[in-house]
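Do me a favour: review this protein, sequence plus structure tokens, and tell me how the chain folds. Record follows.
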Amino acid sequence: MTEARQGPRENLTEARQDPRKNITEARQNPRKNRDRQPRTYTRLTHPLVRDTRDAPLRRATWEEALERAARGIDRNRGAFGMFSCARATNEMNYVAQKFTRVVMGTNNVDSCNRTCHAPSVAGLSAAFGSGGGTSSYEEIEHTDVIVMWGSNARFAHPIFFQHVLKGIHNGARMYAVDPRRTSTAEWAESWLGLDVGTDIPMAHAVGREIIHAGLVNEAFVERATTGFEEYRALVEPWTLSLAEKVTGVPAPAIRALAHAYARAERAQLCWTLGITEHHNGTDNVRALINLSLLTGHVGRYGSGLQPLRGQNNVQGGGDMGAIPNRLPGFQDILDPGSRLKFETAWDTVIQPHHGLNLTEMFEAMEEGTLRAVYCIGENPAQSEADSEQAVRRLGMLDFLVVQDIFLTRTARLADVVLPATAGWAETDGTTTNSERRVQRVRRAITPPGEAREDIDILCALASRLGHDWKYADAEAVWDELRSLSPDHFGMTYRRLAEEQGIQWPCPSTERIEPTYLHGRLWADERADRGRLAPFGLVRHDPPVDLTDEDFPIRLTTGRRLDSYNTGVQSSGFASPLRRGEYIELCPEDAERYGVVVGEEVRVSSRRGTVVAPVWVDPALRPGLAFMTMHFPDEVDTNQLTIEANCPIAGTAEFKASAIRIEKLPVATHVR
């Protein structure tokens, strides 16, 4: 493997081969980290209500809880928002957005898609008219070049990464573009360790090199795109030498990536939250899409764009319309014809404007214009950037309903808590993964206690608010969706079972469409190509939270293999890999600060302070630290992150906070 960044990495292989090395050091260290037991969440089995603002939650009957919930949200009509769930089924998300639009008369519905991949949806939609990844997982097994940009897929997307490994086994060359030399980068031909927040300069330099080397797919650019000349002028200043100064990546490494990607017969460009969780996340996505347009690496088998989704149904939530600007089937809510179709089917009037996204709903809580929230299966009290501010804003609501399987930090703030079923084991329905594949899920076990199906709860509330919805089962909900969404029409439950999942679009019950999207762009006839793909004219915009003498370390965040999101579902289970939350530093910074593995330090940003033990990781470079959001009950990392949001997608800049690290007095951290 070639290494694009220079620096002391001699001990990287040793550390990777023996992950117990740091653990042993921590045990031998007299300043040993405290014995931190992760919080175990008990399953919700009966409804809970709060009698007064300051009273504790108490057990209630379903009748009492539903009546209270109905009254609370009814008195806040016109100031209501729905947080739908990326872990629940498509059918639940469909009913949740229908409840929001029909029962409450608003488009204020969103989910954690806003926290992670909303820039991917916005960027892909702007370029191609739809917000899904363009390829199937299988195609990456048969491609020639794989670019993993801002993605530690081996840890964050291990199932997808098995397909990547098959592709490498079949001869594909992989390039990893990431500030950290991650576990994924170990499999790469070259690691390009760019500085956090310099993805656009890197992409522009790659694009300029492709143009200057005469490697543009001119036939594709001419027939399938618009705005090439403007794009050429935009990237012209980004020479390899300038890009090296801004990104920190050696010019020869950038050139090698550009030539490998452009010369490949087939290439896949994949990204995750390292691209999207920035204040300019949508611009980052557009910068990567530009490279596929330059080279024609889209709309063909084996060539495409893959935004990798982290949760089982984050793609499906958006597909089902649980977003503020699209109806089910990704149909534009501003289009009168689309609204009329749904208004006729639902016997309602749909507001002809976008609703508030999740970020805007939190801002509206502060302003007092959003006073009630119905939160299904989400934990924004711990998953939102600047979590202390998020908790304060949730506390300003007049009424909060939480529907979940555990008493999360968010649920503990609620006025009513409704126990639901687990979408992956106790519910019938479907989910949609990152490759747009809709798959059946089936109830395998009986839910505990009084827990009820999400759809049953929503329908019971709708009935109390004047809408008598009757669905015999999840299939009835799905068939209603199919009747309204051309992309899903051909996916009957029977066909989904027979085919073991089907990718959208599937407009016919008689055929299966190609595994890749946008093949139309290669059509010979202009009329058959439809809307051409525009180049995105985006400019470099550094991170908002600048490092300086007071906050000299750049903190970036991400996921680990053994844990899941805010830890509600995973922290209570043992894992041989789990070590809780640490602040990870490179060996040089650990030595500079005089800290050792296991020693607790104070970590501060301009928003908050946490105490965390140190872990030394040679995959990091000087000036860069890493943490996760998996253990907020131990170390609330999101107290440090900044709510600097992408103006297009609303996603916060989780990946670029400025922090400082301070040693604690010996008496404080010795146990």
About this structure: The two ends are 43 Å apart (CA to CA). The first strand starts at residue 2 and ends at 3. DSSP finds 25 helices and 28 strands in the chain.
